[in-house]
From TrEMBL:
Sorted UniProt keywords: Hydrolase
The keyword Hydrolase is annotated on this UniProt entry: yes
Listed name of the protein: Alpha/beta hydrolase
Pfam families referenced in this protein's UniProt entry, alphabetically: Esterase
Organism, as annotated: Mucilaginibacter myungsuensis
A molecular-function term among this protein's GO annotations: hydrolase activity
Amino acid sequence: MKKYRAFLIAIIMFPLIAFGQQIKTVPIKSKYVDGRNIRIWLPADYSAKKKYAVLYMHDGQMLFDSTTTWNHQEWQLDETLDRLTKTKKMRDLIVVGIDNNGAKRLAEFFPQAVVGTVPQPERAELDKLMPSGPIADNYLKFIVTELKPYIDANYSTYGDAAHTFIGGSSLGGMISLYAVCSYPQIFSGAFCMSTHWTGTFVQNTAIPDAMVNYLDKKLPSTGGHRFYFDHGTITLDSLYAPAQVKVDALFKRKGYGSKNFKSLVFEGASHSERDWAKRLDEVLVFLIGK
């Protein structure tokens, strides 16, 4: 364990939560990003005698417990996972929730390779939202070179790309897509709910077009990779349709079909954990279903 000593402080075991599952909260340090908690969900029947796929999720503090979140909402991830596990619709799975870093969330989540290709004045508006500069590449290094090795060393995982997934919503969708494009040998799939294509909080075409140009060059081949996208039609989600149409067209042009690509629109759905929770079953079954 010396290999992980610089990045692991301690493990705190929390009581069993809904439906008898375990969540372990692990405060960590990293040489790439600021320290934060990770939240490891284990199924009630977790056993070292079995092997598990792993789903890495962003915004970990919003996943399980609405009594501790800023908006009193949650993904209801534990309830959904328990339901899918009991009905055997999903592979054996461990979920690793990675807490976001508050003020640096956009800097960590917005695809770093895209920033320099955004024209003015949108580039200036994007820069205002991350005054410390973009650090998404370091955030992904943390996940790939520190967090994933720790999880694979301490839990009974497959460890290969075919069993390693990543996902999130809003900017978490952006960084999940960027993760697969940056490390296609590590992640085989991503879900990107209510993907925040606009970067800023006003409608624009410059930032989404820069992202589409990046995907045109970096999107991994269809073999072995799978992507899920969606968005609602109200609140922030009302901004995303024009960009999502362009992204959908690009994926189809690259050869993605119904088995490895899905993009849905949910009428009347908002940009909120409450609405993401309602469609999480479909997301997980598509990405990690048997």
